[in-house]
Amino acid sequence: MSEQVHNRLAMVRAERKVSRQSLAEAVGVHYQTIGYIERGQYNPSLDLALKIAVFFGLPVEALFSLEPFSPLTNEVYGRSQG
User: Fold this and answer.
1) Full-model pTM
2) What is the 3-state secondary structure (H, E, C) of 9-49?
């Protein structure tokens, strides 16, 4: 069994106001595939991950990781001091 690939795809899609359907059409997959990736039910191929990164104009590692992403607020504002 392959390792889960973590992603920020749903967050980036929402931020950019891109539907699953329009992203799927742009990268050549079925819109349900985008949902499966977002829910962690399907790991994208390297080719697909790169196409998605190019679509959003982001480095692939900004969207996909083998390690869970830390909360974005921690990355932007730093860890809480509590």
Assistant:
1) 0.84
2) HHHHHHHHCCCHHHHHHHHCCCHHHHHHHHCCCCCCCHHHH
